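Recap from last week: sequence in, structure out.
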Amino acid sequence: AIHVLVDEGHQAKSPLLFLHHFDERGRPLTDALYPLGYFRAAPSEHVILEFLQSIFLPSSLPAETAIVSLVYINRVVTYTGLALHATTWRRIVLGAIVLAAKVWDDLAVWNADFCQLFPCVALEDLNDLELTYLEMMAFNMNVEASLYTQCCFELHALAGLNSHLKTGSAEVSQGRCAHRHSTLRRALRPSVSVDALNEICT
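Predicted structure tokens:
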């Protein structure tokens, strides 16, 4: 699902990237050198998986946190028009995980814990990232059980369709995948009032 969102961001003619908060070129998550052309192309699913594993495995975060994180990412996209891009997707995903880890079962997780995973990220930077996320979501962190359950079902269906790309007709399977992802996006799309939208945009 994240891979599709980044692809959509790269295909957009004038994507809203909110670079001041999310651009890794200005606020890197690592002091390692980025591969040549890293910020010009959407990351592969393997690269995205490796990044998620680098957070979830050492932190022992439950899988449910990943579901809530995806809800938050889609909520920010819906509320603000934010587009995921090669330059921004990792900080966007990290911000969602930080919030989701605190919300799910009231886990005792501190921003300093995530700084240990990303030593070159200052605590102030992570605090700012968290506050930015909250403001962009209009502080709407609630995830109803029905939304969570529907998201799980749609993700399972999307994963099943993705597996058919290796065995079935690529054209047909990709079309079905795109349709299933659209269904997932509709399931995750929250209702938001005009007043809330105005507050977010000002």
